[in-house]
Amino acid sequence: VVIRDLLPTEQYESLRDLGLAHKDRFVRQKSFIRDGAAIDLHELQSSPCAPLVDALVNSAVLERVQARTQRPRMNYVDPTDTNQISLLYYGEPGDGIDWHYDGTIYLGERWAGIYTLHETSHTECSALELMPNGVPQKLPQRGLGNSLILFQGDSVKHRVRPTLPGEERLVANLLFATSPQQSRNPLLHLSQRAVNYAFYGKLKHRRAR
Predict the structure, then answer these.
(1) Torsions phi, psi for 8 (to 5 deg)
(2) pLDDT digits (tens, 9 = 90+) for 98-108
């Protein structure tokens, strides 16, 4: 599911420029899971990129997500989950993440939303690739700026192919669920902490507000 022109053009361009201007503030990690830079919700809120949170986490965006996915009970995960929104940056050769399914700590459907702020590619396709029903699917890179790509990451295999020299990709990653209730399985939470460390350099996936 793709929602195009999610924000007014002027607002999108302002947020894109803001993210690129402060990309050096992101935590860069090279791990067996992912190579790239990222900043999670809780760090984002106290950074110069904080306007991205208000622009993308609001009732207007949520209504469009609910309508396009035909999930009227869809909502953002609770802001105590640091993955509610994050910024992900791929700009060094080899940055990316191999084919994988997302883990989930939620009992309802878990949907990822990838909002493209900026992408330059040496090919006509985005670095984000999906594999619904086991069939690889490439997305045309043209026109993805200011678009929100929605998919169930725990059931649709996906990857960000390795970044080539001169390529650059900046996206906001949003997390939605049809139920806010979390599993009590400690192994799922332990796995999420490991993923958080690979992305943000921290283990905790939630904190009290």
Answers:
(1) -55, 145
(2) 999 998 999 89
The pair of three-digit structure tokens given for residue 161, joined into one six-digit string: 């192919």
Contacts 24+ apart (CB under 8 A), 70-74: 71/109, 71/111, 71/178, 73/108, 73/178, 73/179, 74/109, 74/111, 74/176, 74/177, 74/178
Q: In Å, what is the CA distance from 130 to each residue of 52, 79, 93, 126, 158?
A: 25, 27, 21, 10, 4
| CA atoms lying within 13 Å on the CB side of residue 134 | 0
CB atoms within 10 A of CB 8: 11
- Please, what is the average pLDDT of the chain? 92
